[in-house]
Every structure is written in structure tokens, then in C-alpha cells.
């Protein structure tokens, strides 16, 4: 069964796509956590970061380059932004398809809350 992101990449589900090429698709998150919140996904499904193979190095690099270019285009590169990859349940991954969150446009605060 295709993941939500596979259905977006194929055009089956609507999304605000901001970049698409033969390897990577980027679209705005439907529940943004910052003024800019874009998801960058590989067009072919890789379930988690732990499933990235050595042969995927160029694809993962492409995801970072697309995120960099989008940050510049969105006007958030100069002030800074965050790139986040969640992996599995404890990492907060909600869709079983590797994706990179590009978030910025305001101060983001500390990366993690302090432990009690």
C-alpha cells in the first residue's frame, strides 16, 4: 500500500508542491510548526533513516541540496533554519517514508526540551 507521501509524489493527493524533480519532491507541511515548514522527500519510498543504504548517498545529498535551495528561495537562509529527520516511533516519525523537515522563518529555540 502506498504511503501518504508516495501518493503526493504521484499526484494522487493534492499538496502545495514547491519543488519536484526526478529524485526528490518538496511540499508545504499541512500542519506547519514555523512560518516556513517544507517536507523534502525522496520520490521512491525509503521507510526510515535507518533504512538508507550506502547506494542512497547521492539521493540523501540531493535532499539536503534541495532544502538549502528552498531555504534561500524562502528568504530564511541568512537568519538560519533547521533540518530535521525523525526516525521511527521514539524519534517522532509519523509517516513511514523518509522525509526532511525544513523549518524556519522565526527563532526556533532549543532543539530539545530539557529533561526533568
Explain this structure.
This protein is of the alpha+beta class. It has one domain (4-104): HIT-like (HIT family, subunit A), CATH 3.30.428.10. The chain is 24% helix and 22% strand. It has helices at 4-9, 57-74, 88-91, and strands at 17-20, 24-28, 36-42, 81-84, 100-104. The chain is globular, with a radius of gyration of 14 Å. The N and C termini lie far apart (40 Å). The model has no long low-confidence stretch (mean pLDDT 96).
Topology (elements, then pairings):
Elements: H1 4-9, E1 17-20, E2 24-28, E3 36-42, H2 57-74, E4 81-84, H3 88-91, E5 100-104
Antiparallel strand pairs: 1-2, 2-3, 3-5, 4-5
Rg measurement, Å: 14 Å
Shape: globular
> How many domain regions?
1
* Strand content range: 15-25%
Number of strands: 5
Major β-sheet profile = 5 strands, antiparallel
CATH class: Alpha Beta
Helix-strand sequence: HEEEHEHE
User: Distance N terminus to C terminus?
Assistant: 40 Å
CATH superfamily: HIT-like
Q: What are the low-pLDDT stretches, counting only 5+ consecutive residues below 50? A: none
* CATH fold descriptor: HIT family, subunit A
Could you list some keywords that capture this structure?
single chain; 116 residues; alpha+beta; HIT family, subunit A; five-stranded antiparallel sheet; 5 strands
